[in-house]
Amino acid sequence: MHQYLFFIGDFPIRAYGAMLALAIICGASVAYVLLKKDGRGWHEHIIDFSITVAVAGLIGARLWDVFFFDWQYYGNHLLEIPFVWQGGMAIQGGVVLGTIAGYWYLRKNNIDFWAFADLFAPALILAQSVGRMANLLNGDAFGHPTGGNFGILYPESTLAHRTYGNQPLWPAEIWEGQIDILIFVALLLFSSFKHAKGQVFVLYAILYSTARFFLEFLRGDYVDLTLGLKSAQMTSLIVIIVGICLFIYLGYLEKKNQPVLETTETAPKTKKRK
C-alpha cells in the first residue's frame, strides 16, 4: 500500500490520482467496445462523453462527501474542499452528477439516453471497481475495527491510521471492488438476453445500491446516522425502491408497446385501385 508512486523533483505522483485516471480509461475503453459492437456509431462520442461524465462525476463525488459525510470538518476548512488527494470521494455523488451531465450530453447530440445508458452501465461499474483500488492505496473508504487479530493495518500516513491507529480494520473497499466485478459480469449477462430499454442501467443502480447498503455496516470512515442508518444507506435504500419500481415499469412499457409494433409490422398491405 503506497500513497505515492514516485516523485518528479518535489512533485508527488499519487497512487490515488493515478488509479482514478486508470478507472476512467478502463471504463471508457469498455464502453467504446460495447458501443462500437452495437453498431449505431455512438462509439465516436465516447471520448467527449467520458470526459464530460468524468469531470462532473469527480465534482459530484467530492461535493457529496464534503456536504454529507465530512461537513463537520470541511465547514471549518473551506479552502481544503478542492484537496481531493487527501481522499474523500463519494461514488453515489459521482454517479448522480455524472448521470445528469451524461443526460445533458446525450440530449445535446440527439442520442437515446436509455439505450446508451444500457450499453454504458457495465463500463461504469468496472470503473468504480478500479476506483476502489485508489481508495485502498490512499487509505480512505476504510472499514471499522474487526475486534480481532485479522484485518487491514494501514500505514501511519493514512486517514485510516489516524482514525483507528494500529487496529485491524474490515477490508470494506476491497470487498466493494470485488462485488463491483460480479455486478459487471451480471450486467453483461443480463444484457445478452431480451430486456426492456433502460433495464440494464436500472439493474446496475439496484445491484450496486444493494451491495453498498450492506457494506456500509462495515465502513468506519464516518458514523453519522439518520433514522438509525448512515446517509449512504438512506440513499441506497431510496435508489433500490425507486429502481425496482422503474425496472418493472420499463418492462410494462415494453410489453405494452410490443403488440402495437407487431400489429403494424404484420398488417396486410392494401392494394391501390387504379
Automatic annotation (TrEMBL):
GO biological process, one term: lipoprotein biosynthetic process
GO MF entries: phosphatidylglycerol-prolipoprotein diacylglyceryl transferase activity
Subcellular location: Cell membrane
E.C. numbers: 2.5.1.145
Pfam families attached to this UniProt entry: LGT
Keywords: Cell membrane, Glycosyltransferase, Membrane, Transferase, Transmembrane, Transmembrane helix
Topology within the bilayer: Multi-pass membrane protein
TM segment ranges: 15-34, 46-64, 84-106, 113-131, 174-193, 200-219, 231-252
Gene Ontology CC: one annotated term: plasma membrane
InterPro entries for this protein: Lgt
HAMAP family the UniProt entry points to: Lgt
Stated family: Belongs to the Lgt family.
Official protein name in the record: Phosphatidylglycerol--prolipoprotein diacylglyceryl transferase
